Amino acid sequence: MQDEMSIMHLVLEASLLVQLVMLILALASIASWALIFQKRAQLRRAQADAEDFEDRFWSGGNLAEIYARIGGSEDNQSGMERIFRAGFREFSRMRKQGSPVAAQVEAAQRAMRITLSREEDDLESRIPFLATVGSVSPYIGLFGTVWGIMNSFRALGAQQQATLATVAPGIAEALIATALGLFAAIPAVIGYNRYANQVERMCGRYDTFMEEFVSILQRHAHSTASAGSATGDR
């Protein structure tokens, strides 16, 4: 009786549909845990890179020198570095063309907005999967439970005498589906809430940096224009 009530035995003896439900829930749980660890590493790296870049940026130095030090492929750059690089590159291009100050700053801001949107998409990628697993898994598990209990009662109706020993295994195997559904859903919901909040804060940090950098570019553009006018007057 004890062997018959072991979890492995109940899973192996479950109906094909209930086994399929259990397999789906197990795969969903594995996928959500893999995504949880991946997003944890990605967000930690993004936060550390942002702190490192802000330390270098606010420590002083020429904007052109910071831009030159970043260099290289965008794949090796952090999100904040890509935002800075896109804005300063567009600002420099418009300034070389002799565009008005407002046009220089507007072009830089537009380029940084596009890069910021891409960074948001990258940070948010696949996080909705956790929400899907968290909301759907309990219902999938409940479906397997209902189906398993229904089969147990159908088998029970075919017997003349019903005992707990004949009913318990079928109900137990059905309840395993509910347990698996909760096992898949709970970490997924926690992971979604946690990482959605972290992504929102990270994007807010990027946006704050972008606005501060726009102010710096405005001052830089106006000071350069004023210096040029003074030289021309002399």
List the helices and strands and how they pair.
Elements: H1 7-13, H2 16-58, H3 63-70, H4 79-96, H5 101-124, H6 127-157, H7 164-233
Helix pairs in contact: 1-7, 2-6, 2-7, 3-4, 4-5, 4-7, 5-7, 6-7
Family: Belongs to the ExbB/TolQ family.
Transmembrane segments: 16-37, 127-150, 170-192
Membrane topology: Multi-pass membrane protein
Describe this structure in words.
With 234 residues, the protein is mainly α. The protein has one domain. Helix content is 86%, strand content 0%. The protein has helices spanning 7-13, 16-58, 63-70, 79-96, 101-124, 127-157, 164-233. Helix 1 packs across helix 7, helix 2 runs parallel beside helix 7 and helix 4 (79-96) runs parallel beside helix 7. The chain is rod-shaped, with a radius of gyration of 29 Å. The chain starts with 6 loop residues before the first helix and ends with a helix. Mean pLDDT is 84; it is low at 228-234. Belongs to the ExbB/TolQ family. This is Tol-Pal system protein TolQ.
Principal-axis shape equals rod-shaped
Poorly predicted segments: 228-234
Number of helices: 7
Structural class from helices and strands? mainly alpha
Tally of distinct domains: 1
Oligomer: single chain
Q: Kindly report the average pLDDT value.
A: 84
Largest sheet: none
Transmembrane segments: 16-37, 127-150, 170-192
Family: Belongs to the ExbB/TolQ family.
Pfam families: MotA_ExbB (PF01618)
Domain MotA/TolQ/ExbB proton channel: 77-206
In brief:
By secondary structure, the protein is mostly helical.
Which descriptors apply to this entry?
mainly alpha, 86% helix, rod-shaped, 234 residues, 7 helices, disordered C terminus, MotA_ExbB_proton_chnl
